[in-house]
Design a protein that fits this description.
heterodimer, A: about 400 residues, alpha+beta, six-stranded mixed β-sheet, four-stranded antiparallel β-sheet, 12 strands, elongated, B: about 400 residues, ten-stranded mixed β-sheet
Chain lengths: ~400, ~400
Amino acid sequence: MKYWMLISAALKRKQTRTVLTICSITVAFVLFGTLRSIAVAFTEDVDFSGDDRLVVMSKLSFIEPLPMAYHQRIQSVEGVDLVAHREWFGGTYIDVNNFFPKWPVNAEVWFDVYPEFIISEQEKRDFVNTRTGMVAGKAIAEKYNWKVGDKIPIMGDIWVKEDGSILWEFDLVGIFSQEEGSGVYGGDQQAFINHSYFEESRMWGKGTVGNYVVKVKNKEDNERIAKEIDKMFANSSDETKTSTEAAFSKMFAEQVGDIGLIMNSILAAVFFTMLLVTGNTMSQAVRERTPELAVFKTIGYSDSKILCLVLVEAMFMCFLGMAIGIAISFIVFLFLEEDLAAFIEGISFQPSVILWAFATALVMALIAGLPPALGAMRLKVVDALRKD
Amino acid sequence: MKQILAITGMNIRTILQRSGASIVIIVGIAGSVAVMVSLLAMAEGLNKTISSTGQDDRALIFREGSNSELSSGIAMTDLAIIENTQGIKKSEDGPMIAAEIFTIIDVKKKGAADTSNLPLRGVQEMSFKIRPELKIIEGVNFFPGRGEVIVGKGAASEFEGLEIGKPIKIRDSEWTVVGIFSTGGDVHESEVWADLAVIQGAFRRGASASIAIVQMEKNASITDFAATLELDPRLNLKVQGEADFYLEQSSGASAVIQVFGYTVAIIMAIGAVFAALNTMYSAVSTRLVEIGTLRAVGFHGSSVLFALMIESMFLALLGGLLGAGLSYLIFNGYTVSTLASVSFTQTAFDFAVTGKIIGQGLILALIVGFLGGLLPARRAATQEITEALRSI
């Protein structure tokens, strides 16, 4: 600690420069915290037992339906608690730009499978008992100014009614919100429709569903249950692919491209740039102090001590910048998490990023600080003082 | 003015002597510009591929209410009614109308662990007459009625195993890739094509298709054609010009990439401003005596300010050019594929580094140079002359 004065004096020597350098390191780490978190969310293997819901979809592709008869058979698998199903409705509310997902679901169990959605008992009962019932997420209801009791007209794009009409009318019987910070799939930016009316009125596709959501009793059994379900339907004309809900919601995001690679390339560009900036600042700071360092040596500071002094100075800037930057990216996620959850589940600030940030800051300080530090260490007192 | 030129000339001639500090500004800005240009080039490439698809004299027929080929569905029996409508061009093989199925098969992208949505189009012989831009560039066309497919060259380069002679799994059976086609760089190059009738069987589609495509007569109006069909009480259809349809899709497809590109570039630019400030402050402080001398012999403070600003922006411009140049060399024409938001399928496209994007990159560079230069230059210009000279 007794050297702290020396280091702080060195940093304060040109305060503007120190502050600016720390600021640019901070910016680099804001990007690091944010982009790495996104990359990790995309590339990390999904923990098979991290979720108590499994999604059963057709093995062929996500648009292929599954028979409704599978419901009972999935329910009979040991360890399965509840089975819900949903179907993609698509459709347009007044204008094509008013897009939000609408899912016909089996109303009886839907909200038991998804306890993260908050809805009153009365509304839940109304949803089950109203064949044309629809419940909308709070965000959607607010956006279009819907109130319980409204009739919601939707023009079908995939689904046509038996009479050839594409106009579907649903009765809004409830508005649900989502548990704070639950990051549940789709959030409150979607609407659910009672499956009964949809099923009896549609022209085709009767007796099928889009996919099944299976709530398990014990997360540890996920892998076994998934295998058992897929095995049960293997070699039938509708083979299944069962994964955790997190993996399912990542399916589309992954198809956007190698997001991990894109994020990491950007970060490589960011850090290459920052390395040059910090390295240059450090060597400049040392160059300016050459005579002072020579004086230290004259009065008996060892070479290694000089090396350490300069390195610690670099580390101080890198670590302070890192700490502020990571803190900012953490705050950014606090605000964005819910918006992001509408696109993909599980994007959040990743604590593992902090470890990586420490390692990166250390490497950065070494690469930026070592050349000037070594230069300072090797300084010949006579030469250095002569420069004055 | 003369004064500004004189100082600027001197500054720029001495940049080489201060190369270390100047590199900081150049590299800092080059980094942000390169990232922005690359991401925007990606968005632009995707846009271009989608919007260049389609011809003004061709129309697509969907089911009423449908906004995409994937959600649309029409009965083959409707075709018999449609083909007698005024405006459809006649060829020696009859009216130029083809029914097509658009669906998805799951195939692995090269190097991917999981499958992606590859678009599969079931086409009739007339489809090829309606789209003369399609050329088989390798192998042969599929034989009608057989389990054979031809593959767009974009799909062939992005997906695993789409090579001539190789099997491709479609539903329960294995089909064979017999040819590779090009359509001049539009979205169809990301698709796999096969015989409509065979696909109807394999996908249990019965006598239905997704859409129909029509070649219009010269000078025939698509609006009139659409009105006739949409008002026909026997049909529930929607007609849209082919070029129109793809233009509409292109706008939304790349919005996310664009927003992401701007956001990251702006954050990086803030970092670059700090770096530029650092460089310029040290440029000013090492030249304090020179600047003091200039002021003492009668140069105005404002000339000093302008000259330093020009220096900072000149360095920034160099950085911008370096960043844009790097991104052009590495990425222009680079092929990738992504999930297009409207069709839910993979679309292969080339990065397009356009002049407009480079222009935006350079503007970003100049803004950073301006902000980074302003405060240090002001300090130099307002410094007390005596104090500046005292530091000798």
